[in-house]
Structures are given as C-alpha cells and as structure tokens.
Amino acid sequence: MTIRPATAADWPAVWELFRAVCAAGDAYAYDEATSEDTACKLWFEPPSVGYVAVENGQVLGTYFLRPNQPGRGSHVANGGYMVTEAARGRGLASTMCAHSIETAKQLGYRAMQFNFVVSTNEAAVRTWRKHGFEVAATLPGAFRHQTLGYVDVYVMFRAL
C-alpha cells in the first residue's frame, strides 16, 4: 500500500468513499445531502491538500490537510480521514495519521487539531490518541448520530 498526493483521477473513488462514510451517519458531520462540489472543494481545493492510500490500483482511504484557521491560526493543521469499509481493521487510519503528521511537519505546521471527533467513533479516538492527540475539549451532544441520537464530540490536539 502506498500513500500519495491525490489527483483529479482519484476524485471518483474519493467521492464514492465520501458519500458512503457520510451516509452511514456515525462519524462525519457532513451528511448524504452534501454536494459533490462541496466535498471536492473540501478535499482538493487549496489550501487543502488531499492524499490517497492505494493498493493494487484501488483507493482504500483518503485524508486531507488544511489550515485549521486562516491568518494567525494557519500554523495549526486540520485534517479529515476516511477508510473504505473493506479496508477497515487493517490499521490504515493509523498509517494515514502517521503520514499526515509527517506531511504537516513538512508543510510547516506547528500543531494539528481535529475539530469534530465523534466520541462514539472509538476506533478513531483510539487511533488519534495512539498518535499523541489529546482531548482538548468535549462538546456535549454536538453530533446527531444516525442510530444513537445526540452524542458528544471531541476537539483533539497535538503539537508537532
């Protein structure tokens, strides 16, 4: 498996993954009504930089990095990660997280912050903690989970 910068040719696979993850309603604030244009801008439009994890020519996962805030907050990276259902449980999110940390350092970021980690997404929380992220804040009931109702969201942070 390799992780490389995403290209326009990767967009159809990323869009399919984005739609599936959002429709599940258990990990992302975006939902199934999110337009393709909105999703594409999020992943591919500067200042975002998108990456894909590819194995045997198939996109198994993707992530993006971008400044968490403009101007005086632009030294802190924000990121979003998605893994295909078929590739879950293989450590791919962890591999992409490690890759994104190194990429963020190379891009000159001083820290990373995840603004909206769903507390019930235990695999993600465990993975981000493994890579040095700490819960900086808990937002009570901030996510409307498709099956569990309103659940907490974490803001997670780590210095680079």
Summarize the structure.
With 160 residues, this protein is an alpha+beta fold. 29% of the residues lie in helices and 38% in strands.
Helix content: 25-40%
Q: Spans with pLDDT under 50 lasting ≥5 residues?
A: none
Count the E strands. Answer: 7
Helix-and-strand structural type: alpha+beta
Describe it.
It contains 4 helices and 7 strands. With 160 residues, it is α+β, with helices and mostly antiparallel strands. The protein has one domain: Gcn5-related N-acetyltransferase (GNAT) (Aminopeptidase, 3-Layer(aba) Sandwich). A 7-stranded mixed beta sheet has the order 1-2-3-4-5-7-6, sandwiched between helices. A hairpin with a 2-residue loop joins strand 2 and strand 3. It starts with a strand and ends with a strand.
Could you list some keywords that capture this structure?
single chain, 160 residues, alpha+beta, Aminopeptidase, 38% strand
List the helices and strands and how they pair.
Elements: E1 2-5, H1 11-24, H2 36-44, E2 49-55, E3 58-67, E4 76-83, H3 92-106, E5 111-118, H4 122-130, E6 134-145, E7 149-159
Parallel strand pairs: 4-5
Antiparallel strand pairs: 1-2, 2-3, 3-4, 5-7, 6-7
